[in-house]
Amino acid sequence: MEEIARGLGLDDVGLEKDVEDLSGGQRTKVLLAKLLLEKPDILLLDEPTNYLDEQHIEWLKRYLQEYENAFVLISHDIPFLNSVINLIYHMENQELNRYVGDYDHFLEVHEMKKQQLEAAYKRQQQEMSQLKDFVARNKARVSTRNMAMSRQKKLDKMEVIELAKDKPKPEFNFKEARTTSKLIFETNDLVIGYDEPLSKPLNLRMERGQKIALVGANGIGKTTLLKSLLGINKPISGTVERGDYQEIGYFEQEAKDSSNTCIEEIWQEFPWLGQGEVRSALAKCGLTTKHIESKIVVLSGGEKAKVRLCKLINRESNILVLDEPTNHLDVDAKAELKRALEAYKGSILLISHEPEFYQDIVTETWNCENWTTKLV
Questions:
Q1: Using one digit for the tens of pLDDT, what is the confidence trace for 128-155?
Q2: Residue 197 CA to chain centroid, in angstroms?
Q3: What ranges make up the beta strands (E) of 64-202?
Q4: Has this prediction a pTM greater than 0.85?
Q5: What is the CATH number assigned to the segment(s) 183-370?
Q6: Paired sense of beta strands 364-367 and 211-215, if any
Q7: 2-93 is classed in which CATH architecture?
Q8: CB atoms within 10 A of CB 315
Q9: Is 183-370 the same fold as 2-93?
Q10: Domain boundaries, the chain
Q11: Per-residue DSSP letters for 307-334?
Q12: Which residue of 11, 155, 301, 330 is most buried, as measured by CB atoms within 10 A?
C-alpha cells in the first residue's frame, strides 16, 4: 500500500486523511491506488490522467509500461497514449475498427483509408451517373432497350459507397471586452488556505497582456489561489488588489451538475437570445442536436465541458481564469481551445498539467511548488 501511495504522491497527503477533504486530483489518485492494489487480470481505465499532475502521469506511464496483464484505456492525452499502448480500437459512425500500433500510426493509416474511400466514392458516383444517363436515354428505344435493362440491373446490384458524415468540429472564438487597466492583480503578503495556511506569504503581480500557467502537484493550493484572487475565498491573511474595467471569464475545474437541458442552461445565462441562436452557439461548440436537447446530467464529461465553454466564449471578457479546462476534452476540442487561447488578446491565468497544451499559449509559468506549505 505504501509503495503505491508513494508512487502516486498520497503519502505526502497523509494516508490517515479523510477522503472528503481531498482535491479532485487527490481523489483520483485514491481510486487509482485501490484499483492497482486489487491486481486485476484486466484493468479498465477511463481517462485516468484527468486531474493527475505531471509527475504522477509519468509514474502511471511507467507502471502501465511494466504491467504484466492486459489493460483497456480511454484517453485524450496523446503523448501518454503513445507511450503505453500497442493497439487502437477506433469508434466512429457506430463502427469499431482495430489498428495495430500507437496513436500516431493509427492517424496515418486512418487518413490513408479515408482518402482511398473518398476516391472510390467519387469513381462510383461518376459510374452511376453514366449508367443512369444511359438508361434514361435508351430504355424507350426498342433497339437499345435490352442494353438499358442490363445497365439498370448493374445499378440495382451495386453496393453504394457511403461517406461518413463529418462529426461537428468545435469553434471557440472568445468575445472580447474593452481593455483592462494595466494592473490585473497584486497580492501583498497573501496567505491562502482554509483551516490552515496552504502558502507562504505571497507577493505576486500580474499585468495586462500576460498569459500565465500555474503548475505543480495536486492539492498544493492552485485552485485555492485562483479563488482567493477572484474574491470567492477569503484569504487567511494579506490582501489582493485588483485593477479596473475587469470582465472575468472563469472556468471551474469541477462544476455542479445542473438538471437543465443544454438549451435551458444557455438561455438562463443569455435570456435575450432566440432559440435558433442558442442552438447555433451550442452547435459551434461541437454538440449535436441530440446533446443540445438532453439534460446536462446525462452528458459525458467532455460534453458538459463544452456547454460550460459555450457560456464562457459568448460572454465578453478581458481576463480568462481557467482551472484545468482540458480535462475530459477530446483531441479536436483541445486543439481548437488551444488555438482560441493563442488568438485571445486579453490576459490569461491558467492551471494545467499538460505542457504540450499550455506551452505555446503562455508568456510565463509559475511553479506553485515554490511557495506551498504542503510537502510535494
A1: 999 899 888 888 888 888 888 888 898 8
A2: 32
A3: 70-74, 87-92, 95-100, 183-191
A4: no
A5: 3.40.50.300
A6: parallel
A7: 3-Layer(aba) Sandwich (3.40)
A8: 15
A9: yes
A10: 2-93, 104-157, 183-370
A11: HHHHHHHTS-BSEEEEESTTTT--HHHH
A12: 330
